[in-house]
Design brief:
41% of the residues lie in helices and 15% in strands. It has 1207 residues and is an alpha/beta fold. It has an 8-stranded mixed beta sheet with strand order 8-7-9-6-10-11-5-12, with helices on both faces. It has a 6-stranded parallel beta sheet with strand order 13-20-17-14-16-15, sandwiched between helices. A 5-stranded mixed beta sheet has the order 22-21-24-25-23. The longest helix has 26 residues. Pfam families: Ank_2, HA2_C, OB_NTP_bind. Keywords: ANK repeat.
């Protein structure tokens, strides 16, 4: 190359690097040839500009150079060293010398066939359920039963109209309210007509939820006087009752699509005559995919009929999408809409000042709230964060820098600080200061985030006044609008349990206005069901609510037997059903008088900007509220209470946002690829009735490529084929696969069950209106709980394991004789839910044949390493990749390839609540695996973290196909075998180590992934994984076992060498759960006999008066006895208080026996409250009753109880 050319290239490189040094970007990639022209010149320019550089290799082996600044949030200052112990190197070398799977013992290069064992292209595994052949519909055995159903059905007058429309059109949209029972009536009409005309009939009815499909099939089979599985059947995940002669099959959209996968469009629908899609207007993600399949199927199957059921009046989009069809609108009778509707303002007027919540709030305000938690450093954490906020406000007021404002917003979103924090001296909030400075954009953001414009400073000046005084007219206009809008608004994430309790009390106790009746409460999520359940049960046990109340919980995981108990009519019981939005779809209750609707929903959405999934509260749509109101229209005369202002109701959207526009798309993209393997995902989704944004689709596809569900060319892999039957997010399904291969499934199953549902220590589960001013105290105590379960280990995943183990150890059938404290009750309810999810996951793994009942994939065999914590961490690394980051010790910041910088979430055990704890982080390894990321303004907070060793990252992170021939090991040109080299795991993860160590490590990694691919390809073959005899063991099976043993040994050695402690007994097999505490408590098993006795009930029984449901409940007076016992401050006292027989020998017991009279009025309730030295903490509460002349104590609450929970 000529000197002039060199000068031009030098000038070009110099200008490029100088331009980059002045830009805001923190790093930039340069092609490798620019560096190779003159490496010394390139390095000199980088050094002179005070920049850094490091080599970079992409997945295609293309070399480049990354230049970055000191403040870069992606690249560590130095490449991480990987130092292996001599024992680990010897163990790996012995393993490879003992096996000849790739040539000679000294050869480190892998054969080309090694990376594609068998070279078999992935195929969709066959599903064990099928729809069966078409059968001619035969005459029903009981026509009277059908006619009886049809006479009662409001659909009867539209029967002929619907059948005539089906004879004319292939697509029919039926629009009508949820009370019409469309999904049961229309299939019955079709079966009846096909029977009369002797035509073939196979109807598939697609419901939203599994529980709804099972219920409707049993309901309709009952009208046919048959068992489920004959004429009417159902098929859902892990459950099926069907026969070849079934004419009507209830299922879900996700399950039907799974059955259709792997079939051609010609074969997919040839057995189906009619397909009914329920609630098509809601645009559930898999329902929209099914509509696309139906649109194509109509071209090949001229006799296929599509029936779309909708509750929304604007259904022209369906007819336009299919290009044919007609719509039938069903009109309600006036008799069906008699119930009254009340909004927030009306409810406040109805409730009296004597409502229970008024007394509870007054009592709570008088209670001392102790800040002492036994950990003084936690109090210092709170004070430190408050000082940080004060300092930030001072700097922002003085300099008006945007960085101060961004830091404050991070404290609000990332550190859970109060957005209305007032400066400890001036009393000003961030909104006051922004208005004073004239920061219009800042004021907009703060008002959007919920900042209160009414707060004044120490001089009694609010944000509007200070904006007027500083002549900031734009801020004045914004604040004036906020003044008018702020007062009637209610936050989406605010659920007022005390208001709901007041309504329940009003509707179930003696009242001249409201007739006592059954109530359903619609709540956004399961955790809200638990919280309200405890609130109601507590009032019932204390006698504030009638004892005829029976509490039920209805959600997606409710068993069918429990649903039947809710539906069954019992005039002696007042039913209170706590339900999620599944009640809208069921519409199976005939005896509900009242609906209490919080008008919210809890959804998982995807933020395409930060690429984070988050759980959000949203207002429900008007259509949702209408469906909930109709829950009481069957018998008329009821009432519906919407807990939102009328003005806010008018602003609600007509229907909810379609799933394809808001929810994560990884499972959707996987389903699309298996439905149409030769079509690009983005092209397929552009043909659906709702088209998701291209950027969201692209990001989802790239994520699936990163975790090896798709190839780089967007073809399906064996991993993707297997994960379709595992009902969790794809990266969690991959985590389960790694757990099976590394023989540690049980601990990983528990972790995945938590990660796919909820965080048991989330502050929102345990706080309410009363505790909101003391939110920091609640956070402190939950943080202490996390540290207790962490046992000094740097792992949030271990916290989940230990919590589940302790819960299982405390479960005893004889321990459910009283209600625990609010914290224990809520935690127990959450863990029961996690246990249900865990059980379903095991069933899904068996159904997908990822695990077997016998052989090398039996539960016993794949849990042999469950007691080894390094193996569990290795599984977490492989499964959660690419969620990996590294701590840069030079700047004490987390570095990752993500767009936004990562910070540790304050709930993680890797840091304290104080922000200062992140300024001096020292871990035994720089590598951190995280399971969740949430947006915290310009940062992403990571939670569910575990510090992992470098060897685990080198072996299990990165793509599954990694070869030494792809330039993954880079060395200088004059390197010897023992010189240092760089091992590139992916485009970002890189290690510095000796060349021979890198080659040995790479070979071990390749051997493991050979097992990985073989397992995914052949796990459905039972004979291949049949456990052989030791004498006849095959070479591959024995080598696989030896490899896993070798990996276990070297991981343990490296962890010990790096100073990681080893937890004990983490692999305990979970036991079967005994009688569930929630159902036992709600079933009324714990009531003292005195609660069931009253003068009214006695006279009613003797005179054959109406049932207790029509008898007014007398108001009972209460008396309390406070008993202080010194021994209750000790652990021994806890055991004594749980043994009621030991109380009879106490002096206070005899004194109480003399004070009370056995002939005391039966309407008076007497409670014994045991308290300790802690002023805000009770130990237990007992109820007093007389039994054959003897004083008896019945436990109501046990363990540590906050005083306000009782008062």
């Amino acid at each position: 190359m000529s000197s002039s050319t060199n000068e031009i290239l030098h000038f070009y490189v110099s200008e490029q690097l100088n331009s980059f040094s002045r830009e805001k970007r923190c790093c930039m990639k340069y092609m490798g040839h620019l560096f190779e022209i003159d490496p010394q010149f390139f390095a000199k320019i980088v050094k002179d500009l005070r920049l850094r550089m490091r080599p970079h290799i992409d997945n295609n082996g293309q070399e480049s150079v990354v230049v970055f600044k000191d403040k870069c949030s992606h690249n560590t200052a130095e490449i991480v060293d990987l130092k292996l112990t001599t024992e680990s190197l010897k163990d790996m070398y012995r393993f490879h010398c003992g096996s000849d799977f790739c040539g000679s013992q000294q050869e480190f290069e892998m054969s080309s066939d090694f990376f594609s064992p068998g070279n078999v292209p992935p195929t969709v595994p066959p599903h064990r359920f099928s729809l069966g052949p078409l059968k001619q519909s035969i005459a029903r055995c009981n026509e009277m039963g059908q006619q009886s159903f049809q006479r009662k059905s409001p659909m009867q007058r539209y029967k002929q109209m619907i059948l005539e429309a089906l004879s004319r059109s292939r697509v029919v949209v039926v629009n009508g309210g949820a009370t019409f029972g469309k999904s049961t009536a229309i299939p019955m009409y079709i079966i009846e007509q096909c029977s009369q005309e002797k035509r073939h009939c196979k109807i598939i009815c697609v419901e939203r939820e599994q529980l709804v499909a099972i219920h409707n099939s049993e309901l309709l089979a009952g009208h046919f006087h048959e068992k489920v599985g004959e004429t009417v059947a159902y098929q859902v995940q892990l459950q099926s009752r069907i026969s070849d002669s079934s004419n009507l099959v209830y299922t879900t959209s996700s399950f039907l699509l799974r059955v259709l996968m792997g079939q051609s469009i010609m074969d997919s629908f040839r057995h189906i005559s009619h397909l009914v899609v329920v609630d098509a207007h809601l645009h559930e993600a898999f329902s929209d995919l099914l509509l696309r399949e139906l649109k194509v199927a109509l071209k090949y199957h001229p006799y296929l009929k599509v029936i779309l059921l909708s509750n929304y009046s604007r259904n022209y989009e369906f007819l336009q999408y299919f290009g044919e069809g007609e719509e039938i609108s069903l009109e309600m009778n006036n008799d069906m809409i008699k119930n009254q509707v009340f909004y927030y303002e009306d409810i406040r007027k109805i409730l009296s000042e004597s409502a229970p919540s008024v007394g509870i709030r007054k009592a709570f305000k008088t209670l001392p709230i102790s800040l002492a938690t036994g950990h003084s450093n936690n109090n210092n954490d709170i004070q430190t964060n408050l000082m940080q906020l004060d300092k930030c406000l001072e700097t922002y007021e003085r300099t008006a820098h945007d960085q101060c404002f961004e830091f404050f917003l991070y404290m609000v979103q990332g550190e859970q600080a109060n957005i209305n924090h007032r400066h400890s001296v001036t009393g000003r909030t961030i909104l006051n200061i922004a208005a004073m400075l004239g920061k219009v954009e800042h004021v907009k953001i703060l008002l959007h985030l919920g900042a209160d414009p009414f707060i004044t400073d120490k001089l009694d000046v609010d944000a509007l006044k200070v904006a007027i005084s500083m002549s900031n007219l734009e801020c004045v206009e914004l604040l004036k609008v906020a003044y008018f809008e702020k007062s009637p608004q209610i936050k989406e994430n605010h659920i007022d349990n005390l208001l709901i309790l007041d309504l329940i009390n009003m509707l179930t106790t003696k009242n001249d206005v409201w007739i006592r009746g059954n109530i359903i409460v619609i709540l956004p999520s399961y955790q809200h069901l638990i919280q309200l359940n405890y609130t109601i049960l507590k009032e019932k046990l204390l006698g504030s609510l009638p004892q005829q109340i029976s509490i039920f919980m209805l959600h997606n995981h409710t068993e069918k037997a429990h649903l039947d108990a809710m539906i069954a009519s019992d005039p002696k019981v007042i039913k209170i059903i706590l339900s999620t939005d599944i009640a809208e779809t069921l519409m199976c209750f005939d005896d509900l008088q009242y609906v209490i609707d919080v008008a919210r929903q809890y959804r998982t959405v995807f933020d395409s900007e930060t690429q984070c999934k988050k759980h959000v509260y949203e207002w429900s749509s008007k259509q949702n509220l209408e469906n909930r109101r109709l829950l009481v229209t069957q018998n008329g005369g009821g009432a519906c209470f919407h807990l939102l202002p009328l003005e806010q109701y008018k602003q609600l959207p007509e229907v909810q946002t379609p799933d394809l526009l808001s929810k994560p798309l990884d499972r959707v993209c996987l389903a699309v690829k298996l439905l149409s393997q030769h079509t690009m995902v983005s092209e397929y989704l552009q043909e659906t009735i709702v088209q998701p944004p291209f950027t969201k689709v692209y990001q989802a596809v790239e994520h699936l490529k990163k975790i090896s569900v798709f190839t780089d060319l967007e073809d399906i892999t064996w991993l993707g084929c297997r994960l379709i039957d595992v009902p969790v997010e794809c990266h969690l399904g991959k985590l389960l696969v790694f757990a099976i291969l590394l023989q540690c499934l049980d601990p990983i199953l528990t972790i995945v069950s938590f990660m796919t549902t909820l965080d048991p220590f989330e502050t929102a589960h345990y706080s309410d209106d009363l505790l909101e001013p003391h939110r920091d105290i609640v956070r402190q105590k939950l943080k202490n709980e996390r540290k207790h379960f962490a046992e000094g280990h740097l792992s949030d995943h271990l916290v989940l394991l230990r919590l589940y183990q302790e819960w299982q150890n405390d479960l005893r059938d004889d321990s459910m004789d009283s209600i625990p404290s609010g914290y224990n009750f809520t935690l127990n309810g959450l863990l029961e839910y996690v246990c249900n999810v865990r059980t379903q996951l095991v069933g899904a793994l068996r159904s997908s044949q990822l695990i077997h009942n016998k052989g090398n994939l039996s539960m016993h065999y794949i849990n042999l390493k469950s007691n080894c914590w390094p193996i569990i961490k290795a599984a977490l690394v492989g499964g959660l990749y690419p969620s990996v980051c590294a701590l840069d010790s030079q700047c004490n910041r987390l570095k990752s390839p993500n767009k936004h910088e990562l910070v540790l979430h304050p709930d993680s055990v890797l840091r304290d609540l104080s922000l200062d704890s992140m300024r001096d982080m020292h871990f035994k390894s720089p590598w951190i695996i995280y399971g969740q990321a949430t947006k915290s303004w310009n940062w992403n907070s990571i939670n569910c973290n575990t510090v992992a060793g470098g060897l685990s990252v080198a072996l299990f992170a990165g793509p599954t196909k990694l070869s030494s021939s792809s330039s993954k090991i880079t060395t200088p040109s004059n390197a010897t075998e023992s010189s240092e080299c760089l091992l590139h795991i992916d485009e970002w993860i890189c290690f510095k180590l000796a060349y021979n160590e890198a080659a040995l490590l790479l070979k071990t990694r390749q051997h493991f992934y050979n097992i990985y691919v073989n397992y995914l390809q052949h796990c459905g073959l039972l004979e291949k994984f049949k456990r052989p005899n030791v004498t006849n063991s095959t070479t591959s099976t024995s080598q696989n076992t030896i490899l896993i043993d070798c990996i276990e040994k070297i991981l343990v050695q490296e962890d010990l060498a790096n100073g990681f402690p080893q937890p004990e007994r983490i692999g305990l097999r979970p036991k079967a759960v005994p009688n569930k505490l929630m159902m036992t408590l709600n079933g009324g098993m714990l009531m003292a006999p005195c609660l069931y006795r009253s003068q009214f009930q006695t006279s009613a029984v003797s005179k054959n008066m109406p049932t207790p449901n029509n008898v007014p409940v007398p108001q009972r007076s209460k008396q309390y006895f406070m008993v202080y016992r010194k021994d209750l401050n000790d652990v021994v006292g806890v055991d004594m208080i749980m043994n009621t027989s030991s109380l009879r020998h106490s002096e206070w017991f005899h004194l109480l026996n003399n004070l009370l009279d056995a002939k005391t009025d039966c309407n008076r309730l007497t409670f014994i409250i045991f308290y300790t030295r802690h002023p805000d903490l009770l130990r237990s509460v007992y109820m007093v009753d007389w039994n054959k002349g003897y004083l008896e104590l019945y436990p109501c609450f046990k363990f540590n109880i906050n005083l306000h929970c009782v008062l």
